[in-house]
Design brief:
The protein is of the alpha/beta class and 410 residues long. It is 18% helix and 18% strand. It has 6 helices and 18 strands. The protein has an 8-stranded parallel β-sheet. It has a 5-stranded antiparallel β-sheet with strand order 9-10-11-13-12, with helices on one face. A 3-stranded antiparallel β-sheet has the order 14-16-17, with helices on one face. Strand 12 and strand 13 form a beta hairpin. Helix 4 runs antiparallel to helix 5. The longest helix has 24 residues.
C-alpha cells in the first residue's frame, strides 16, 4: 500500500503498480505524473463516486480496482482506456452500467455485490472477455448479445433475480466454470438433510485451517464425548453474506446433496441457527497438501503451480482417475461444482486426492434435460483443463510414455 504523500513528493515516479486507500473522495490528479508507466491502479476502500476524463491518458493501464467505494454508476471513462483489460468494482452501489463503460480489450470484469438490474448489450461485444463475475446483483435477465462471448471461460451469475435459465450462455464454446445458484430459476423445494442438525454449542472452534470467500474453516473439538461422530473434526462457519460465487446457503445445500465419496471431504453434520450456518466435516490429515495454486492476472482462468513443481505420470494418471470418479458422482447427483480446479484439490504422497470447496456449486435437477446436458458439457471442459494443467507439470522424462499420450487424447 502506498500513500498520497509519497505520490505528491514524487517518490513513486516511474512506478507500474499503485494502491491508495486513504478515504479519498476524489481522484488524486497527482496520479497524472504516472500516465506513462502505470499498469495497475488499486483505489479500493475509499469514498470515490466518479473518475475523471484524464484517466484515458493512462495508455499503459491494464488493471483497475475500485472495490468498496460508493460508485452508483460504472464510470464511462473506463471505456476510453485503450489497454484496460481488468476491471474490479466489487461491493459498490452500482445500479447503472453505461453502454460505453466497457473497454474494447476487456478480459476480466468483476461487478460482484452491487445493485445492477440490467446490463448493456455492449457486454456481448467484448470478444476478449474470459472471466465475468456478476454474483450478488439484481439482474432479472442477461443481454442476448452474450451469446457472442466465444472466449468466456468463467462466469458467476449466482444470487441474482434471473427468472429463466439464460440459455444463450449454455452453448458458449469455451465456458468451463459456471456458478448460477440463488436465482428464481434454480429455486428448489428440496431441503437436503443427509446429515443431522446439531447445535453450535456442541463444539469449540480452535485454530483456523483456512478461509475463502464464503467462510472460515477451523479445527474443532467436541464439548462432550461423541458416539456417532469421529473425534477429529473441522468446521466451516459460513460468513452469511453474498460472495463472488453466491449464497452460503446454496453452497451448503449443494454440498449435502452430493453426499459422501472417498475423494470428497466427508460431511458429518450441519448447524442452521439464526446468524450461524456451519458444516461439520472430517478433519483432513496433515499429510495432504494443495495440488495447485489459483489463477493469476496473466493466466486469468487457468491454475498456476509453484516454480519447479512436477509430478510423475503415474501420479497424474491416478489423480485424474479419481477426479473423473468425483465428476461422475457429482453429476449423478445433479450438482455442478463450478470450480473444478487443482487449487481446490488436496493430494498426498501416494497421489490420493480430496476435492472440496463447494462455494460455486449449484444443484440443477430443476432444469430441462437439454439444459442439464449442457451444464454437464460445460463442466467436462473444466475437467479437461484440469487434466491439461497436470500434464503441463509432468516430469519431462514421462512425456514420451503411452500413459501421457492417452491422457492427452482423453
Amino acid at each position: 500500500m502506498h500513500t498520497l504523500s509519497q505520490l505528491k513528493s514524487g517518490e513513486l515516479s516511474g512506478i507500474t503498480r499503485l494502491a491508495l486507500s486513504e478515504k479519498l473522495t476524489s481522484f488524486p490528479l497527482e496520479l497524472l505524473s504516472l500516465v506513462d508507466t502505470l499498469e495497475e491502479l488499486d483505489l479500493s476502500n475509499n469514498q470515490l463516486t466518479t473518475l475523471p476524463d484524464e484517466l484515458a491518458q493512462f495508455t499503459k493501464l491494464k488493471r483497475l480496482f475500485a472495490s468498496n467505494n460508493p460508485f452508483e454508476t460504472l464510470p464511462e471513462i473506463l471505456g476510453k482506456c485503450p489497454n484496460l483489460e481488468m476491471i474490479g468494482f466489487k461491493a459498490n452501489k452500482i445500479k447503472h452500467v453505461p453502454e460505453n463503460s466497457l473497454p474494447i480489450k476487456l478480459r476480466w470484469l468483476i461487478l460482484t455485490d452491487n445493485e445492477i438490474e440490467q446490463l448493456p448489450d455492449s457486454l456481448g461485444l467484448r470478444p476478449r472477455l474470459q472471466k465475468l463475475a456478476l454474483a450478488g446483483n439484481k439482474l432479472t435477465s442477461l443481454p442476448s448479445t452474450m451469446s457472442q462471448l466465444h472466449n468466456l471461460e468463467l462466469l458467476r451469475i449466482s444470487a441474482n433475480n434471473l427468472t429463466k435459465c439464460p440459455t444463450q450462455l449454455l452453448s458458449l464454446p469455451k465456458l468451463a466454470w459456471l456458478a448460477f445458484g440463488g436465482n428464481p430459476f434454480t429455486k428448489s423445494d428440496v431441503n437436503v438433510k443427509s446429515v443431522p442438525s446439531i447445535s453450535s454449542s456442541s463444539f469449540t472452534l480452535q485454530e483456523i485451517l483456512g478461509q475463502g470467500a464464503s467462510g472460515i474453516i477451523s479445527k474443532a473439538i467436541w464439548n462432550e464425548s461423541q458416539s456417532i461422530f469421529p473425534d477429529d473434526i473441522a468446521v466451516k462457519v459460513f460468513k452469511g453474506e453474498v460472495t463472488s460465487d453466491g449464497y452460503p446457503e446454496d453452497e451448503l445445500q449443494a454440498c449435502l446433496k452430493v453426499g459422501n465419496h472417498p475423494s470428497l471431504v466427508q460431511s458429518l453434520a450441519q448447524v442452521n441457527e439464526d446468524n450461524y450456518l456451519a458444516l461439520v466435516m472430517n478433519l483432513i490429515p496433515p499429510t495432504y497438501q494443495n495440488l495447485g495454486l489459483p489463477p493469476n492476472f496473466d493466466t486469468c482462468t487457468r491454475d498456476t503451480f509453484p516454480t519447479g513443481f512436477t509430478l510423475p505420470i503415474k501420479d497424474i494418471a491416478k489423480i485424474v482417475e479419481q477426479m473423473k470418479e468425483v465428476f461422475e458422482h457429482l453429476h449423478t447427483n445433479q450438482v455442478c461444482h463450478g470450480d473444478l480446479y487443482a487449487h481446490n484439490t488436496l493430494f498426498d504422497v501416494d497421489a490420493n486426492i480430496i476435492f472440496g470447496d463447494f462455494g460455486a456449486a449449484t444443484m440443477y435437477h430443476m432444469l430441462t434435460p437439454i439444459q442439464q446436458a449442457q451444464i454437464k458439457t460445460i463442466e467436462v471442459r473444466a475437467l479437461r483443463h484440469f487434466i491439461d494443467d497436470l500434464l503441463n507439470i509432468c516430469n519431462e522424462e514421462d512425456k514420451n510414455t503411452q500413459t501421457f499420450a492417452l491422457l492427452t487424447a482423453s
